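CORE FACILITY INTAKE
Project code: CF-77B
Contact: R.S. (postdoc)
Sample description: multi-component assembly, two entities in total
Requested service: structural model of the whole complex
Turnaround: standard
Below are the sequence entries exactly as provided by the requester. Do not edit them.
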Amino acid sequence: MKNFEHINAPDLETAIALLQEPSAKAIAGGTDLLTEMKDRIQTPALLVNLKAIPDLKFIKEDEKFVRIGALTTLSDLECHPLIRERYPILAQAASLAATPQLRNAGTVAGNLLQRVRCWYYRHPDVNCWLKGGVECYAEEGVNARHAIFGSSPCIAVHPSDLAPALIALDAQVRVVGPEADGELALEEIYRLPDEGLRERMVLGPADLIAEILVPKRPESSRGVFLKAMERATWSFALVSVAVQIDFDGEHVKNARMVLGGVAGKPWRVREAEKLLEGQALTEELAQQVAEAAVAGAQPRAYNAYKIPLTKNLVKRALQKLAG
Amino acid sequence: MPRVVKTQVEFEGRFYDEYVVIEGEDVPPWSAQQEFSVVGQPQTRIDGVERVTGAAKFTHDIQLPGMLYGKILRCPHPHARIKNINTKEAERLPGVRAILHSANIPKIPWRMGLTLLFDQTLRYAGEEVACVIADEEEICEDARELIEVEYEVLPFVLDPLKALEPKAPKVHESGNLFHNEPEIYERGDIQKGFSSADVTIEGTFRTQTALHNCMETHGSVALWEGDALTIWDSTQHIFGVRDVVAQALGLPKHKIRVIKQYMGGGFGSKNSAGKYTVMAALAAKMTGRPVKIILDRHEENLAAGNRPASIQTLKIGAKRDGRLTAIYHKSVVNVGAYATWGGGTTGPTRRLYACPNMKTEDYSVFTHLGPYSAFRAPGYVEGTFALESMMDELAKKLRIDPLELRLRNYAESDPATGWPYTTKGLRQAYHRGAELIDWQGREAFKRKYSTHTKKIGFGMASQIWGGSGGPPAYALVKINPDGTAVVVTGTQDIGTGTKTALAQIAAEALHFPISSVKVELGDTQLGVYSPLSAGSMTLASVGPAVRVASEEARKQLLDVGAQTLEVPREELEIEQGEFLNRRTRERTPVKAIFEKLENFMIIGRGARGPNPEKKSVNTFGAQFAQVEVDTETGRVTVQKIVAVHESGRVINPLTITSQLEGGIIQGVGFALTERRLVDERTGLVLNASLETYKVPTVQDVPEIVAEMVNLPDPEVNNLGVKGVGEPPIIPTAAAIANAVADALGSRIYDLPLTLDRVLTTRELP
């Protein structure tokens, strides 16, 4: 690891001011940043520690939202009775991420802002396009873990488990910082990198997520998060599916479906959502929705398996919600 | 008087003739009816407290005053020549003490002269270019970035079949085929065998490159005191490290002391000294300070060895009743950039079944990839997967139960040599395993618990391996004036529980309680040679020497005791570490005798005797797997493994169960998730971390039912023990593959059985 300076920010304002220094990075749980620093993928000169900022670690509710503080850990989220009871989709997503040790350290905001796991990006000897090089090595290389949706010079997938679940819940984030300030739909902070900006976030380096706002759902709402992994645990999603449906009796009133592990950002499948609306969940409908979910998918040399995997997970998710 | 004996020694499936010196008389083997008080009892590790409290010192824990650190700069190209290396900037960095590289270090031959310690030609991405020595590891890393290396990038080849083509880039001047020819074995008449067959089947299997990922990475600490060198090394062979370093540095062996007290795994990857060992010794000499070089996980997975990938074609001919008439087995193994021995996989084919006609061909092919090393039963895990998969295909074709097919081809004597086995408990293992998994009831179980998306399957596979151990191995047993005993050997405990098992043997033979027995090992300075801890040979080599030494020490103790107590020798015995007068039932503590004898110390000496001549010593076993395949996600879940093995007498049921479980878990990883991925265009390893290289987690571990056929071998050695380190990993992947084929109704011919393969897609490189 390269030498760096470390400052405990006492409050968000100070943190934001410090983060405007070039080569400054915010650190909370550090479960992503430290691994990049050890491999010298990132070499910040200054780390601004957010963990000392009071009042950013909470799960509470008001009239419209359940509010989750940025420094809330994944373990907190996974174990909180309110989340388990009313947003099982979120508890499931949190519990399937990483390992208990990592979940004890990793924060919710950090999870939403984590960098891609592409093995070319993470390789110390590869200067890929995302790191400022000229070429995406995965495009012609071992792209088994890469995108089947979206068009970008970088085909790495967004690795978060929480993001698809939170977007399925229509969550917003409250952002503070020089470039973005106020409440944004979580879905809107993600973008596909392009030649103009090799970033996955619309947020600037000094913009911080302060809290996540999850709208309250009607009693009839049910959600599920499913994740395919190479082994039983401690793996990023090969494919994940987050579905949240508000029911009207047996019929779908309103559905949101978001896929993880298949695109450079959490991938919302609106066509599939539309098919669901007003319908009762049947085997036949599940099949149609599954087909719609992968419409337009473009497999690469080694990731064609993601298409049947996505379809099957979508079907399984809908079966669970029907049952 | 020492006797010089010529004997045949088996190591990892290969046989070597050796001259060894045997001292003293061997003792008769313990009989099958022998009753024991310590041996065969479940004994917790005598060093368990040190391990769990952190008191145990591993190589990584060694901290010496003034110690410097070393970090290695590695080549980012699969094939390149160093045109120029400039270290000026790096040397200027405060805290940098030395930079070792090809221009300032003498040419030290490495890997049997195929390369040098610092070679100017680099043959795989990750090969050593330079080594920075500095006050801190971080300074080493900073300096490493400042070294400017100008490479001439050369053409490379990664695929072993392409490497065999005439115009392929050459890894070595002598060509890309190890020894320039395949290793061929034949018996009977293969043509006749196939023409007399009623059915013939053929298949091609591919196995992946697997990485050891020992918990403790490779590393060394070197300290010079005058002209004497001490090395702490994470190794399976302290004497081997001594010899390699002595040769590399031109030092007399007696000037080098190698220590390894505790180790976090080796699995075959730590059978010798590493380049880091010699670099640490050189750097410590240059700087006059102790130097520590520990590989990180990334380097470990580039340069510390692997189980090499194989492409195996098997053709089997059989009679309608299942009797094998012929087997042809061709194997191409990608050994990477260097090899000092052939990496064949056909061993199990040659030796498992009574098949009269056979031909096997093993091609070990050099490519521009990280070199292979031994990995727990090298060749046998891969070969057993191919052979036992094919046996199941034959069973399916002939509509014979897979277990019955194996029993019909049971080898009553060694099919390769015609020699009888000293013992063979495979039939018992088959029957007991079938009983434990309810093999006969499996179809009913499948019908009951399979759904349309979750398919249950059952499979089994057999295991053959050596594991006889053999000479030379020596031990001393000392009895201290305080009535305690010390076993002294030059072996090392690589985490298997060697220390505990040797203490049990000594306690049994001395008639001492195990709490009075201490074991000293892992230090060449102890002066008592023992072989490397590999090839499932430690206990079967060293254990018998410890027993001889203990018996001799006990005899001496009785001689001294009888004279001191002034009673007839035959009236005296040792019980629970005390003298017992058989006539009077009077007990005398050993300590009480020694009090009259100043500081006298009893020393018993023992040597391992030769193995029996014209007999085959093998270990056997059978494993049965129950899996569930999720046909929607492609995920294979191993629900249960039943393992029944025969490795002679069981010394410690607790540590042997640990060995079985560990081997099976490693086998589950090989079967399902572990594979090194390499980028075809750059030759770089893509998943050299524990996040991306998927070893099984605790949640992936199935229910394991492990048993031994406790069958003391009356001929192999005076304990009746054979090795058990490697056997449990051998049949696991094959049994799982057979269970998955049973669940799916069709076979996947390649490992690992990842979900993308189950869902069918293009193969990964």
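Facility notes:
- The longest helix of chain B spans residues 538-565.
- The first strand of chain B starts at residue 3 and ends at 11.
Invoice: internal transfer
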